[in-house]
Amino acid sequence: TDAVTDTPVKATPALPDAQTVTEVTHWTDKLFSFRCTRPASLRFRSGEFVMIGLMNDPDPKTGKVKPLLRAYSIASPSWDEEMEFYSIKVENGPLTSRLQHIKVGDEIILRPKPVGTLVHDALIPGKRIWFFATGTGFAPFASLLREPQTYEDYEEVIITHTCRTAGELTYGRELIESLKDDELLNEVIGEGFWKKIKYYPTTTREESPKMGRITDLINSGEAYKDLDVTPLCPDNDRAMICGNMAFNLELKAMLEEAGLEEGANSKPAQYVVEKAFLD
Ligand code: A2P
């Protein structure tokens, strides 16, 4: 037969919604980040999350393979050509025990349906914005710190990150240091935008320049003193919270006590909260 009239052999993607891994960085034995290609049609707002994962091993009875997906905050900003994710490695975690072994060129599944409340749209205008993170809860802020709107909307940006060990702070610290050289932010916001940022890293189980839970450091007033800022107030301050459950609840109660109200996409207000992914 004539080759031209033959049914063309279509390149079938090995996975539904497959994206290719372009970079993997291991930060500690428990933390890694990776970058992958971005679906051409995917639009998202900085701070949102998507479902990502891998194909499961075939079911021993049926032989069928199903995707194994988890919610992951997108750590890259909305303008980035690629996608970035920041993940914990859990030894017996169904997904992360396998995801931690991905290499450049491997494929992952990325469902292109972004959602989430840690978005600028869910907050009403204010002077300062606080980003409160623990552990991998830093991920959505890695996106929002690279988002020009953050610096357009606020005079001051305060990012706090509490981790158990100093090594767990590295991803966040390097990202914040890299902002100084961020071409887009320098071009759009103007050089010196990064001087609006106040970074407050703390550790709880290993020696570091600032020890303690951010909640305790705020309650005692020590954080305000260290940062040289006035206490949280509903007129000036907006906040986003992302960390483990106990932290989210404690900080939420503190913000409510200070007079801030929780916002949502449908009803913007003064703060928003989201649980960091746990395998
Ligand atoms: P701590 O070591 O005192 O528990 P995890 O790794 O368990 O998710 O915790 C990440 C960080 O969040 C740790 O430094 C931990 O401190 C801190 N943390 C846990 N619970 C709270 C809370 N309720 N308020 C403030 N920080 C918390």
Automatic annotation (TrEMBL):
Presence of the UniProt keyword Nucleotide-binding in the record: yes
NADP listed as a keyword: yes
Catalytic reaction list: 2 reduced [2Fe-2S]-[ferredoxin] + NADP(+) + H(+) = 2 oxidized [2Fe-2S]-[ferredoxin] + NADPH
InterPro entries attached to this UniProt entry: FAD-bd_FR_type, FNR_bac, FNR_nucleotide-bd, FNR_type-1, OxRdtase_FAD/NAD-bd, Riboflavin_synthase-like_b-brl
Record domain FAD-binding FR-type: where: 14-121
Top-level taxon: Bacteria
Record-listed E.C. numbers: 1.18.1.2
Required co-factors: FAD
Keywords: FAD, Flavoprotein, NADP, Nucleotide-binding, Oxidoreductase
Family listed: Belongs to the ferredoxin--NADP reductase type 1 family.
The protein's name: ferredoxin--NADP(+) reductase
Source taxonomy: Bacteria, Pseudomonadati, Pseudomonadota, Alphaproteobacteria, Rhodobacterales
